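Practice problem: predict the structure.
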Amino acid sequence: MTELERHPAVSGSGAVAGPDGLLRCPWASGAADYLLYHDREWGRPVVSVDGLYERLTLEAFQSGLSWLTILRKREAFREAFADFDPAQVAVFDDQDVARLMAETGIVRNRAKIDAAIGNARVIAEWGNGFAELIRSYAQPDRPRPQRVADVPAVTPESTALSKALKKKGIRFFGPTTAYAMMQATGLVDDHLADCSVPKHDH
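Answer:
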């Protein structure tokens, strides 16, 4: 699910004032972790292969869970998955899978763990072409939404990106997950129109 849709209580809302008086997307007020993520990361361009692999993996693990859960486990994920270096994760074996399934700091879902390792193998072989393909879906000229209710869960672009990556062998990456990653990595700017976070170059 998209960041904004993960907070149904704010659906339909515009930007709201935070503790410092600045207007922000309403979901950012849900917890301190959300506020920091909103201000420092969400919607900012990510261009590195490692960074995009991390976002792809975390979005896949989030499916069915709160994004706050993933944010709070992020450092444990990074340690467990070799700082999301695809070349390192690509050589994980059965012992690594057993280690990950025993790691209480992450989400222990065997299908998602297997997908994360399989995706790393695809990306390690693909190289920078992985990042280039994802960044080719950037939509820098799309206007910011006015309200949470204006933000889609799926778009033609996210559907196309999902299909393109699946064709390469990427798993656990449907159109909704693809759109959430597009938001998180600045391919689209879904900060609300009145949000104080400045627009960034794509």
